[in-house]
Structure formats: C-alpha cells, structure tokens
Amino acid sequence: MKPNKYKQSHSTEREFGGALGATCIPVFLPLTVLYLLSVCRSPAASVLQWPPPLTPAAQLWDPLAVVLVAGWITLQSFLYLLPVGKVSEGLVLRDGSRLKYPINGFHSLCITVALLLLCLGLGMPLGYLFELVLPLAVCAIALSYLLSMYLYIRSFWAPKYALSLGGNTGNPLYDFFMGRELNPRIGDFDLKYFCELRPGLLGWVVINLGMLMKEVELRGSPSLAMLLVNGFQLLYVTDALWNEEAVLTTMDIVHDGFGFMLAFGDLAWVPLTYGLQAMFLVVHPQPLSTLGAAGIILLNGIGYYIFRRSNSQKNQFRRDPTHKSVTHLETIATATGKRLLVSGWWGFVRHPNYLGDLLMALAWSLPCGMSHILPYFYVIYFTILLIHREARDEKQCRAKYGLAWDTYCKRVPYRIIPYIY
Ligand code: NDP
C-alpha cells in the first residue's frame, strides 16, 4: 500500500516571504555577492562607505572565467561518475522507492587536491584567482540561473509523486525559487545531490588556496591568519565530504525541491561568500599573536567537536537505534514509530549541531581581527540562516511528531544556545 503522503501533491504553506520573497531574493542575493566581493577587495573594506566601491562593469567579465567554470563542472561531474566508493540508498520516497547515490565525494576531494598540487608544481599562477573572482562570481550566478530555468522547465515532465511538496503552488516565481522537482536526475546523475557538496564546496577550498597563493605572491609567505582560515575551512569541507552519506537525510535532500534557492546557494553563494575572510586578508593583512591563534584554534576545536559528535550521534541513532553507542541514551516514543533522543547531545539543546557550527563560524572570522565587520559577514549571515532553519525544522517536526515534539521541547527547552536561545 502506498503511504498517505503519496496522495499529497503540494503544501499550501509559503516560506521565505512567499511570492514577494521568491521574486526579490533571486535579484537581491546575486547583487549581494558582487557587492560583498567588491567591498572586500577595496582598501577601506567598509560596508558603510558611500557610494559603495562597486567594480566597473567591464571588470566583471572575463572569458577565462567561463572556461574555468565549465572545466570545473566537467571535472567534478567526471569525478562524481567515477566508480569508486560505495553506493548508498536515500530515504524512502513517496512512491515507496529509494534512490541510489554514489558516496565518492571524499575521493573527489583527494583527486582535486592532488591535481591542484600538480598545477602548483607546474607553476600555475593560482593567485590569479584573486583577480578573477568577480568574473567567476558572474559566471557562477549565470550558471545557477540557467540551471534553475532548466530544472523548472523539465519538472513539468516529472511524475506527480516526484515533485516536492513545497515548490508546487502554481505561482511560477515561487515554484522557480523553491524548486518543483525533488530529485531531478539525468539518467543516474542526481543534479541536486551533485551540486549540494561537490562544485561549490570544493570550489570554496580552491578559491581559498588561490587567496593564500596571492598572499605569497604579495608578501613572500602566507600569514598565520591566512593559514588558520584556510585550515579551518578545509577541515569543514573535508568533514562534509568524509561524512557525505549524512547529507542523504538532510532537509535539502529529503524535503526541498531543486530550484533557484539551492542551485544558487550551492554554486554561487557558498564558494564566493563563505571564504570572504581569506579574500579580506589578501588586501588587509592582520597580525595575529601565537596566543591569539591558540585561542582561536581551541574555539574551532570545541565547535568542531560539538558539531561532529552531535551530528554523528543523531545519524547513528537514525540509522541503527540498537547500536551500542546510542543504546544508553534516553528516548521518547512518537506516533510515527520513530523515537526522539532526549539525552546526550540532543538533550543538551534541540540543535547542538547548529551550536557547534556557529562556534566554528566565529573562529573563522576572528583571525581577521576586530577592525572590520566584513570578515564577520559569514557568522552574522549564518546565525540568521540557522535561526530560520531551526524554525523551519521545528515546524516540520511538530507536524510530524505532534504531542511527542511538545514533550521533547518541554524536556529540552533551549533551541541552540543553552540558557539563551
Ligand atoms: P539536522 O541534522 O539538524 O536534522 C534535523 C532533523 O533531525 C529533524 O528534522 C529530525 O528529523 C531529527 N531530529 C531532531 N531532533 C531530534 C532528536 N531529539 N532525536 C532524533 N532526531 C531528531 O538538519 P540540518 O540539515 O539542518 O543540519 C545538518 C548539519 O548541517 C548541521 O550541523 C548544520 O549546522 C549544517 N548546515 C550547514 C550549512 C552551511 O551552510 N554551512 C547549512 C545548513 C546546515 P527526523 O526525526 O525525521 O529524523
């Protein structure tokens, strides 16, 4: 028998400010990327500067950027298709089937790093990425628009059960933004899963390395602050790819359709704004004492520990609740048959993984000193994102688990930060 949800074809709820939000965000966010990159490279790097130090239109275009983006997507697609690593199944879909996904992101990272080292060995001027970053942003934005248009059009040929519940309201702008189809694929190639962790996350690491090489060109060696930013963010990306399988149970894969929101986020927003700190350091070098660096490394370590342990605990519990590492934890039953953890990390706050992520975000900005707000963009934006994401997740959990969720909230009253939020 098909589950009930199979009959449900759409949700009437509107997120991200509804049609108005879905119309404004695709214009506003790409402009924000170009603005942030322009300000970051300016001598003052001040978000209060008026008129803003916008880059002249002629400098936004470079055919080399098109070649690099096309080559990059081709390389990552080829690595995605390599028959290495295991194949995992996603969660059960509304038609009762399960899709198969290659778990070879970490292999892609290793091969990409090896290729980068080879390029450096051959004398490729990776520091030139600093000059090219705005044209690269323009290409990445254009690519996310083209991809979202393709996704929107092809979704009209998808069977009803393959559509997402949230992106099928009939309002073209809203549906274009939220994404109509849940798991668009070309043959076995899953477009959403590919974009989620490959071109953007790895692109972020490469751009960071480019900034480090630019610093070497300008000042002879990388600064301590630059090494920390590069090291922390490389750890984050490596962790995401090492634990790639966990992405199969995230909201993005399970719940959200593939539209402009995810395409732009994955292909343009992540690689170009998450590494602003490294770009900032190229133009605005910051002294960092050994003691300061030790404190920041400790903060990143604590954040990473909380982030990794809490994510792993929940993933393990969801995959196999009888595993010895989770059997000692207290749980409560829900009407769906699934149980909720109320002790361990998930008894500390309702989203311990977000807390760890935020501590790391702060550690990534601190090496840039306190003189500018711009390198703190990521931690500010990320706090807003995670508060919003937490509210979306709570809503979905309340709808899924009803009274059991309310009991959980009473047992664990704080959402992200104990005694504060
Ligand atoms: P989460 O990993 O937080 O998963 C939320 C789900 O976990 C809920 O929907 C529920 O699903 C389950 N759950 C919640 N509470 C409990 C409980 N007490 N016991 C058992 N299961 C529970 O989802 P996200 O995808 O938001 O986050 C994953 C990671 O990715 C986080 O570390 C986050 O910080 C990070 N992230 C990073 C981003 C970035 O840009 N850097 C962006 C977004 C996320 P169910 O019950 O159905 O299993």
Key features?
421 residues, mainly alpha, two-stranded antiparallel ribbon, 6 strands, 59% helix, binds NADPH dihydro-nicotinamide-adenine-dinucleotide phosphate, Delta14-sterol reductase activity, steroid metabolism, lipid biosynthesis
Describe this structure in words.
This protein has helices at 18-41, 63-81, 105-121, 129-154, 172-178, 191-197, 199-219, 224-242, 251-254, 260-273, 276-283, 290-319, 345-348, 352-365, 377-401, 403-411; strands at 86-89, 100-103, 185-186, 189-190, 331-333, 339-341. It has 421 residues and is mainly alpha-helical. A hairpin with a 2-residue loop joins strand 3 (185-186) and strand 4. Helix 1 packs across helix 5. The longest helix is centred in the C-terminal third of the chain and has 30 residues, at 290-319. It is globular, with a radius of gyration of 22 Å. The relative contact order is 0.11. Mean pLDDT is 92; it is low at 1-7. The chain binds NADPH dihydro-nicotinamide-adenine-dinucleotide phosphate. NADPH dihydro-nicotinamide-adenine-dinucleotide phosphate (NDP) binds at residues 250-251, 307, 311, 314, 317-318, 338, 340-341, 346, 351, 353-354, 357, 389, 393, 396-397, 408. GO terms for molecular function: Delta14-sterol reductase activity.
